UniProtKB/TrEMBL annotation:
Organism this protein belongs to: Auraticoccus cholistanensis
Transmembrane domains' residue ranges: 31-54
Keywords: Membrane, Transmembrane, Transmembrane helix
Protein family according to the UniProt entry: Belongs to the LytR/CpsA/Psr (LCP) family.
Taxonomic lineage: Bacteria, Bacillati, Actinomycetota, Actinomycetes, Propionibacteriales
Record's compositionally biased regions (Basic and acidic residues): 1-12, 75-90
Cell envelope-related transcriptional attenuator domain sequence ranges: 110-250
Gene3D superfamilies the record matches: LCP protein
Region of interest (Disordered), residue spans: 1-21, 67-90
Domain of life assignment: Bacteria
Name by which UniProt lists this protein: LytR family transcriptional regulator
Length: 349
């Protein structure tokens, strides 16, 4: 076998070099320089984050209105006792869609979109529950009628009171949203994609079965159409839930949160189209947002308040017949923070 090129001395490992010792004062200076650079970077990053937080807080404070009315305490269920083990209590927020762009008076305009957002105590799951507009229920002080009549009779306060009496559960907060303005957020987040169950067309837009990309006017007519759908208002309510889920999931996605301009525009867009009750302060919103542990759209569960089917009243009104037994189970699950068990028993179709 041929010898490697080079002399024997070339092939002998060289003795390790001794580390050159810097004078103590030079070493200290270098360490201080590195620490100074690191500290400066941290300060710059911290200032950026602080400014980012300030911009988000300003987007809320300067746009959100706190004038939506809840019912008087004397007509409401007692609040649930807070957990004793340090956990968060679940949160229930009534969401009402309004066609009024002037939310200085949340009782103005008409409302035919009614949902309850339930946030679990561990903050890992949100449940979005639709109440179809034709649910035939008892409206306190007015007798039997469609649930959307509560807004016409007594505004936001009576609507919340009606929901609370149905569920026998106290709602924590109220948000009245200009739904058309909210749908405009599809543009702010760069569009959304929903899984469309029934193909239909509306106002010049086609919505094929399967994944559909939505934004702007196309998104608006997607959530407003019901006459072209096989199950009418049930399908429309489902489409509304899907769009709300997609907007929230996209707005809270890492790519949007990592973009200060996009996320601030998203927060500002929600706030400018929303009026909430006085107790839902900026601080409460901030603390709740920081406690969220949602990972994406899969952690937002879409449900409908239970109905048995449809019927017609003696006066000829088409109504949705409420399943009051299952509705009582829904209210108990919301109150006891066991919505996961309710969903396991009554999975979404």
């Amino acid at each position: 076998m041929d010898e490697p090129h080079g002399t024997v001395e070339d092939r002998v490992p060289a003795a390790p070099r001794r580390a050159i010792q810097e004078p103590p004062h030079r070493l200290r200076r270098r360490v201080l320089t590195v620490l100074g650079i690191a500290l400066a970077l941290l300060l710059v990053a911290g200032a950026g984050l602080a400014y980012y937080g300030y911009q988000i807080q300003r987007a809320l404070t300067s746009n959100l209105q706190h004038n939506a009315e809840l019912p008087p305490d004397s007509s409401r269920p007692e609040p649930d006792a807070p957990p004793q083990d340090g956990r968060h209590a679940p949160v229930d927020v009534v969401l009402m869609g309004s066609d009024s762009r002037d939310l200085s008076n949340p009782d103005a305009g008409r409302s035919d979109t009614l949902m309850v957002a339930h946030l679990s105590g561990d903050r890992q799951t949100a449940y979005l529950i639709s109440f179809p507009r034709d649910m035939y229920v008892e409206i306190p002080g007015y007798g039997q009628d469609k649930i959307n009549a509560a807004f016409a009779y007594g505004g936001t306060a009576l609507t919340v009171q009606t929901v609370e009496s149905l569920l026998d559960t106290r709602m924590d907060h109220l948000a009245v949203v200009n739904f058309e303005g909210f749908i405009e957020l599809t543009d702010a987040v760069g569009g959304i994609t929903v899984d469309n169950e029934h193909a239909f067309s509306s106002h010049g837009y086609d919505y094929p079965e399967g994944p559909v990309e939505l934004s702007g006017e196309k998104a608006l007519w997607y959530v407003r159409e019901r006459y072209s759908l096989p199950n009418g208002d049930f399908d429309r309510a489902e489409n509304q839930r899907k769009v709300v889920q997609a907007i929230v999931a996209k707005g809270l996605s890492p790519q949007v949160i990592a973009d200060p301009a996009a996320f601030t525009a998203f927060v500002s867009g929600i706030a400018s189209h929303t009026a909430v009750d006085a107790a839902l302060t900026d601080e409460v919103i901030r603390e709740t947002a920081l406690s969220l542990r949602l990972d994406g759209a899969s952690d937002i569960v879409l449900l409908q308040a239970p109905v048995l089917g449809t019927d017609t009243t003696a006066s000829g009104q088409s109504i949705d017949v409420v399943d009051f037994d299952q509705l009582a189970e829904l209210g108990e699950a919301m109150s006891s923070d066991t919505m996961d068990e309710y969903v396991a028993k009554y999975p979404p179709e």
